[in-house]
Design goal:
The complex is a heterodimer of chains A (about 290) and B (about 675). Chain A has about 290 residues and is mainly α. Chain A contains 11 helices and no strands. In chain B, helix 14 packs across helix 15. The radius of gyration of chain B is 26 Å and the shape is globular.
Amino acid sequence: MSVLTEQSGTEARAASAKIIKRRQWTRILRSRTAMIGLFIVTFWVLAALLAPILPLYSPTEQDVMAMADPTPSATHWLGTDILGRDQLSRLIFGARTVLMVAPLSVAVAMIVGITMGMLAGYYGGWIDAVISRFSDVILAFPVLVLYVILIANIGPSIINIVIATTIASAPGIGRITRGLVLGLKHQEYIAAARLRGESTLFIMLVELLPNCRSMLIVDACLRIGYTIITIGILGFLGLGLPPPNPDWGGMVKESTTVLNVWPLMSLVPSFAIVSLVLGFNLLADGLREAWKP
Amino acid sequence: MTAAPIAPLLEVRDLRIEYRGKMETIVAVPKLSFSVRPGESYGLVGESGCGKSTTAMAIMRYLGSTGVIAGGSIRLEGRELVGATQRQLRAIRGRRIAMVYQDPMGALNPVKTIGAQLNEVPMLHLGSTRAEATEMAAAMLKDVRLPDAGDMLKRYPHQLSGGQQQRVVIAMALLGRPSLLLLDEPTTGLDVTVEAAVIDLIAELRRRYRTSLLFISHNLGLIAESCDRVGIMYSGEMVEEAPTRNLFGKPRHPYTQGLIDCIPDIASGKHTRTLAAIPGHIPLPGERPPGCLFGPRCRDFRAGICDSLPEIPLTAAGKDHLVRCGRWREIDRARTTLPLQMSGAVSPAGTIEISDVGKLYHIGHRRTVTANEGVTFAAGRAEIVALVGESGCGKSTLARIVTGLDRATSGEIRMAGENIAELAASQRPRHMLQSIQMIFQNPDSTLNPSHSAGFSIRRSLKKFGLRKGRDAVEQRMRELLEMVRLSPDFAARKPDQLSGGQKQRIAIARAFAIDPSLIVADEPVSALDVSVQAAVVTLLLDIQASRHTTMLFISHDLALVRHVADKVVVMYLGRIMEKGTVDEIFGDTTHPYTEALISAIRSTNPDETSRTRIMLTGETPSPVNVPPGCRFASRCHRKLGAICDTVPPPVQLVSDTHEIACHIPIEDLQVPAKIVSPAPKVREPS
């Protein structure tokens, strides 16, 4: 018996490795940053999900009585807007729009961006050159102008917002993915997969993509935050969802005329945008910390 | 106990080093004592994770934000360093103690010239003027044998090769005229012939400047040759300390004995000796066992003696010889290693025939890199052919071409009658892929961190349809894991839960899973610790022999090649210099390059260390636009003259199997009794 089994003592090592593994998750739980972010995001998600069953006014119902004094009262906790619609209700129903459109846009942008980055990074050569230059052109375009041109021309709707944000953020995601793939494609396990005769698609999806996961999730969190801002801006510019749909950006815009008299009317939706974006950013920061190698 | 008559230069006493994280404290070194005497070279040896580098960092007081010296004292020339202020430390670092790190590129500032960086040292520590400093720097560069010092001072670090950078770092360390030089794995990243030159340089400078050395390394051969006294560390503890000759001649601690038995030596091959591996692995700092730390891995472990005491003391086992073992008197040192049982004879029928393979890379306009040129050799069934050479010699490129990860630009590689030289892996049919598998170098990147260890084995089995159905695949995988001596539950573990040796075992199982006829092993053990290396090599040889698999074994470690190979191909800058059977290559007629490589092997055997060392000048030239003559001519110590630079050397046949590409006639290539030669002199390059 010249070579002894490696089993003695490895049990202890495995146990400790398991502890380290568990620690990675508890690290997220212990990270105050991530937890505050998660709390804020969860709050809005729950509010949005439960909106139909919460005892709220309809977001489009006008309370003529409240129009004279739209400040907070016992009947309207956060007051009403200039048309007498309940602010709290519009806020929560507005969250439904935001939390549907933003993640959907980012998801679509991720699919497009990851595909671009994978192709560019894995194949290199002229494919990389074409994709990278194309990305450069789009990234060089002022994003806001891009949105305004797109939405103004094809009209505001959820799908069009998704298309606009995809065009704007896919090149950035592509770049991140390309960089990750460039670092990973020379790893020996990729060579081993090629020697097994695995297809390129398999290598990309099963061997490469999971190792880009943590970076891309962090990036997605940040992008959801940015997209929420974008949706707010579009709403503010009147390019958001058509009225009377509750839309945070639109709520700010409608109330700017009375900003001097009733500042709360603008501040409430602004605060909602800030809190949700902050929530996603904190979550992203916390995840990045916890997943740091 | 005999006390040293002279006060030690560096005295480390009861040193305790902790890393304090947010959530836990790791004790890297629990209690360590040793001393370095004036003018002495002290070697600190141990496997990775034993705390040797941490100790060096503690002496320099560079432990970072989390490292804390929690107890004990470090005295340099009688002055206490623990608790010294930053101002006091600044006066000591660089001036009294200097350090040479493993990675020279990290020690040099890439945006400053060599001259500017060297000048800083005397200007800061000796109060020299810039002119004086420049003069000293130029003189020192000459001392570290860098050519053309004036020009060198104006260069930037990236314009130098690795060996030259390390010389600059050594020059920088010596400029402050320190009394103690700390060397932390100073040659680990360098090629063997460059390493030999750097080590000889350090020995010479040490004599000239009377500097004491603290030499940290995992390479026992290096330590045996360059140190007066050696301390063996294990898991943060000193387990044995003795003068070099005694330590390697009469090791007392089972761990020291184990380490020595692990290393392949040049005198024996696989048919005469099996490398003895130390089972298990070094305990993590949080898992140190009670009593003897080495206990769980020790063959002579006795419950009651080795695990009862809270701490086993260092006891004297002779003059100057300390050992931390409860049973050292009872253990007798005997090699219990048996030669490998070879079950099958090597058949001459060729598995793979490589003929005239070349690989050119085009970089920019009209510039080409010649990675391989005219490479021709064959490997028979069950044969192990070793490809040997320093970095840049094209051995890994050849491996990539054979496996299909890269394509040859010319030549033929025939396997089972088909030419595979210009077929990429994606173009190869299934049976061709199945017949060639590869074992990679880096255990940390050989397994996908996102998947379980068994994932790729399972994929291989399914992909090639060797087993049908989930149960059959799982059954086969269990057999494969058993074959590499891992328990079946390892299949479910993620790579980050495995040690380097375990990952490499999984990689071996993966390569053998589909019964290939050829395995290409690219430096399969070079990233592993010596004790693990021995186990993996033995395992690999076992499996290879029982399956009659042909193997291309790529390595820069000649002693290992001596142990493993049947045939050896020596490459330099893309060309074959010499090929033959192991006995022929290590015999007495060899190519000058092979001769230099073999002479760079260091042995721990105290009776064998006085081997003639051939020092090559310079370093491997760039493979861009290679010279027309002999590739090795620019560094050859036996160069004949202009003919070597202009005319490609003829291939001379020494025997049917032994070929040498050299202008020197065969009769003159004989090097009598090279292996164990008593000649004490170092032959200077001509």
